[in-house]
Records
---
Amino acid sequence: MKALQITGYGEIAKNVEIREVENPRIEDDQVLIEVHAASINPVDYKIIEGAMRNIQKLSFPAAIGFDVAGTVKDKGTNVSDFNIGDEVFARVPTHSPGTFAEMVAVDHQAVCQKPSNLSFVEAASIPLVGLTSVQAFQKANLKAGNKVLIHAGSGGVGSFAVQYAKAQGAYVYTTTSTKNVEWVKDLGADRVIDYKKEDYREIAKNVDVVYDTLGGNYTKEALEILKQGGRVVSIAGDPDNETAKELGLNGLIRFLMKLKRFKLDQLVKDKNAYYKFVMMHADGAQLNDLKELIENRYISAIIDQEYPFSKAIDDLEHVKNGHTKGKVVLNMKLS
Ligand SMILES: NC(=O)c1ccc[n+]([C@@H]2O[C@H](COP(=O)([O-])OP(=O)(O)OC[C@H]3O[C@@H](n4cnc5c(N)ncnc54)[C@H](OP(=O)(O)O)[C@@H]3O)[C@@H](O)[C@H]2O)c1
């Protein structure tokens, strides 16, 4: 079969290529999925560039890709919840990527039946961003009536999170640039803040929850606009100590991170707040909850662009450029 493979760390164009490889062999707990579509996430180019090597060091050539939608072609002896021919979607477990390929073997516990009202391309756009947001809002203890700021409402994560937080009954502030304001409003956000023209800190004040999808100074600024005792969940800022340990980061790295977090930790203490860095994980049962929200029309898939497999590098570069509107997807059936 054909599969995109990472051949070394560095620039995208010089370190990935489509190669002919053996079909994956399934283990007893796995299903073999014929990939119809696979979406790109920033983590994919970050892995190629080596930014994740402290967490997971690659040996080359390495498989790539976490999101998939496709058809079950085979299953292991322990799998009773899926049948050959089922149309499914999944975020594959972190230790076994490989969805940018014609076939992928996936632990059945990460897999879910595809929402009946979505195409394969649409379904492939959901798992990673959807599970990230569900897991982050669980940590944030988001409740109906809470005021939440979601940064980057036009991004892959943000465009999902705005819809999800509205479905939970929250009041949603979100940020984006001028060109995206109108369609992000259509996602249901109560107040879309144009970061090119407005200072979000003047508008989203005293919020219960900040969902930090940007990191850098935005993580510290979250504490400025948070109410006393509020909660910040970050997917792009500095890992808190507990998460850094769970990620297996060594003592020296954790110590340097603690120094870097000094100001943030102080602000969290002063506000009697909660700060958590969330590293998402695969979860087929949670995907099933999302399937219901999608089928009940609370959440739509937002597709910026689809690319054929032969243009996978362009697809990765598109996401790397940082201005996607929703999700960018590889359509394996497009030539
Ligand atoms: N920890 C985890 O488990 C986890 C999981 C998923 C994602 N992540 C991380 O979360 C981050 C976001 O992921 P993503 O998939 O949403 O990325 P993305 O789709 O590439 O985000 C692009 C969007 O960000 C917006 N944006 C850029 N700068 C902005 C700013 N200053 N203010 C407001 N919006 C801004 C852009 O809007 P404009 O074009 O209008 O600027 C664009 O729509 C990435 O760093 C990713 O690696 C982490």
---
Amino acid sequence: MNISDRLKQLKPSATLAVNAKALELKAQGKEIVSLAVGEPDFPTPEYVREACKKAIDDGFTRYAAVPGLPDLREAVAAYFNTFYNAYAAMENTMVTNGGKQALYNLFQALLNPGDEVLIPGPYWVSYPPMVQLAEGVPVVVPATADAAFKVTVEQLEAHRTEKTRVLLLNSPSNPTGAAYNKAQMDAIAGWAIEKGLFIISDEIYDQLVYAPAEHVSLCSWWTRYPEQVCVVNGLAKSFAMTGWRIGYVLAHADLIKAMTKIQGQSTSNVCTFAQKGAVAALSGGFAVVDEMRAAFRARRDLALKIVGSWPEVVCPVPEGAFYIFPDVHRHYTKAIPDSATLCTALLEEAGVALVPGAAFGDDNCIRISYAVDEATLTSALDKIAKVLFK
Ligand SMILES: Cc1ncc(COP(=O)(O)O)c(C=O)c1O
């Protein structure tokens, strides 16, 4: 088969490799606990499911407008306005197949071949390949566990060249859970605007930030600099709706039009009745989200208490999302020299599936998702410790 050169440069997903191995072991009858997943373990709220079922019966089963149903776009604008005073209109929003397609559309719409995108690391696995698919160049700006996985303006500036076009921010972060505070965010956004960069702010975990930390959105920067900022969000993480594929974006109306062109020639509209469920989610109040946040917070504290007692492991307190990203490299040995080998050993010897830090650009770390109940989390962490300290 002749596969395009563009595709040959893409690495296969490390997350999927872990999953494949876990499934293989499960098929052999082994008991496997997965802390590798990037999705809430809660069900989608009932009123959202009901709204979707009703939408099917009401005939919302046909093609719809490419950028989204008007009532959902209005609800998305209202979300950004209510939570973050964005002053957005419907024309500044668009509905996409998950936050993922919003990001894909953005890179396709913004990048010319060779344009560089600054990506603070550790980073979400899909960012570099998406940039490459748009013929851009991902430039990783690494931050370590000792720096709480946050980059500074000085580090970003050191990686900027005349080809730098976009800065991609993800706070709270997958995989580290790190969330920038207002002073840090303002410093970075102010620098990027002054240098003429375009900022993509992936805020998919905005509802999962744990007090006293507060989510700092770039919506207010978008209001002031609509041609240089956009915000990506969606319902997957906040409303436990990963399979619904509902993402959205806040951007300048011209950029929305450009992305609509891309979506119109690739996937068309997001599933029409899923969009009706999304309207119900955004209009139904956020009490369910508050409950999920409280549960995640308790699990985070539990995970931190256990991992915090592990010797020579550095684990900054994640202020958001549902991951911890401990630096375990001081326990690497000749037999286990890196995060991938460690995760294979954990899977085979302890029956625990994790994603190696290397997949996110930091081989010193492992990503542990705490989107599981507390008993499962405790027993899985105990099993990890047995392999790590044997
Ligand atoms: C940082 C980040 N951005 C975007 C996404 C995309 O989410 P979805 O496409 O499911 O809305 C994910 C999902 O794991 C993520 O972790």
